[in-house]
């Protein structure tokens, strides 16, 4: 094991970091850290495996690991057409719902908390099925939507109808008129597909910790909107329970049901998905165990190391997997908001933050690449020389 100040000829570094949101992609983080390490320790082998936890950046991480990037035109959250990407390799697809239904597709300052739809996410799933995928990792996060996945299920053949038998409108607001649901037209290929819901969110669908209350305000929902959305998703659960039985009621309070505006619930009930923490799934899909073989030091990280990191984010998952093999882990970040003891409990020996070099957060964002290279030089001096 490499330790501070002790050189080890057999040292081998694996960089397995997530993106620095708003500054660097996970691939760019790996490139910058590699450049800094090699300036100080040019002889040390460095491997890279950009990672993600199911949220934005998940498809990019899969592509960096050797998956093929596929692009399709789908319905965006506002109903207009957008380009969305997914990744495919050997019958396994990695899909990021935010590619189709994410906040990234909204104009700056524009929100649609009651009408934004997940229809495009269903179209993205259908495109993967058309391409031959029989195993799908469905990463959810960064959504602009709170429709319980009704739009997604509609795109896959379900029908959500009002009391007169007409389709309800888009978004969570449209569910106010919901009377019945018909799953008989769901794409039959789904029954033979292994679909894993990958998320770091364990919120239930409704209630004080549910999707509308916790995440609705981030999507522009007013307190009145939150109350409406919570009520319609309670009704949504009742209608789905009438259609498929008590399993639907139980799943509303299960981990992941509240992910991405309730699309997690729609996937669990309508698509038969199983839920797993996003980083666990992605480490399996990306081949982390093989990449870890022979490593003596792992460098992980993300934009902000804080309390959320400890609850299923990529650095915590990487650290847990490396610690299980008794491999030392250090982290890089833009901002560090965890004390050393919390890092230690997570299996992270030490963290290096851009703010140690530049206290102005705006400058850190703008100059993240060069600053990260300087941090990597410090890591090489501390651990590899």
TrEMBL record:
Keyword Transferase in the entry? The reply is yes
Keywords for the protein's UniProt record, in alphabetical order: Kinase, Transferase
What InterPro entries does the record tag this protein with?
A: Glyc_kinase_flavodox-like_fold, Glycerate_kinase, Glycerate_kinase_RE-like, Glycerate_kinase_sf
Q: Does the keyword Transferase apply?
A: yes
* An annotated GO BP: organic acid phosphorylation
Mind listing the GO molecular function terms for this protein? Answer: glycerate kinase activity
Q: Which family does it belong to?
A: Belongs to the glycerate kinase type-1 family.
Tell me the protein's name.
Glycerate kinase
Taxonomic placement: Bacteria, Bacillati, Actinomycetota, Actinomycetes, Kitasatosporales
């Amino acid at each position: 094991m490499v330790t501070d100040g002790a050189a080890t000829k057999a040292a081998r570094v694996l960089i397995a970091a997530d993106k620095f949101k708003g500054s660097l992609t996970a691939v760019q983080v790996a490139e910058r850290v590699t450049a800094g390490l090699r300036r100080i320790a040019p002889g040390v082998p460095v491997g890279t495996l950009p990672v993600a936890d199911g949220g934005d950046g998940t498809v990019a991480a899969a592509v960096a690991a050797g998956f093929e990037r596929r692009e399709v035109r789908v319905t965006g959250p506002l109903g207009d057409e957008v380009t969305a990407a997914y990744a495919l390799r050997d019958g396994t697809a990695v899909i990021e719902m935010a590619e189709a239904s994410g906040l990234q597709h909204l104009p700056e300052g524009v929100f649609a908390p009651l009408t934004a739809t997940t229809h495009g996410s269903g179209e993205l799933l259908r495109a993967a099925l058309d391409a031959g995928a029989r195993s799908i990792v469905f990463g959810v996060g960064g959504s602009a939507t709170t429709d319980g996945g009704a739009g997604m299920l509609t795109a896959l053949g379900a029908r959500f109808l009002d009391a007169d038998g007409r389709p309800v409108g888009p978004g969570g607001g449209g569910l106010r008129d919901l009377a019945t649901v018909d799953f008989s037209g769901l794409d039959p290929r789904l029954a033979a597909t292994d679909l894993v819901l990958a998320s770091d969110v364990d919120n239930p669908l409704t209630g004080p910790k549910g999707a509308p209350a916790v995440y609705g305000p981030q999507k522009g929902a007013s307190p009145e909107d939150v109350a409406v959305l919570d009520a319609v998703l309670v009704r949504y659960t009742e209608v789905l329970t009438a259609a498929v039985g008590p399993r639907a009621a139980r799943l509303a309070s299960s981990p992941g049901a509240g992910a991405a505006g309730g699309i997690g619930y729609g996937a669990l009930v309508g698509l038969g998905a199983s839920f797993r923490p996003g980083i666990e799934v992605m480490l399996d899909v990306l081949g982390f165990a093989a990449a870890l073989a022979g490593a003596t030091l792992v460098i992980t990280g993300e934009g902000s190391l804080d309390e959320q990191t400890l609850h299923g984010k990529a650095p915590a998952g990487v650290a847990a997997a490396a610690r299980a093999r008794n491999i030392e882990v250090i982290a890089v970040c833009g901002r560090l908001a965890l004390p050393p003891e919390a890092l230690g409990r997570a299996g992270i020996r030490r963290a290096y933050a851009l703010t140690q070099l530049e206290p102005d957060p705006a400058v850190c964002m703008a100059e993240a690449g060069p600053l990260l290279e300087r941090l990597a030089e410090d890591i090489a001096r501390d651990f590899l020389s």
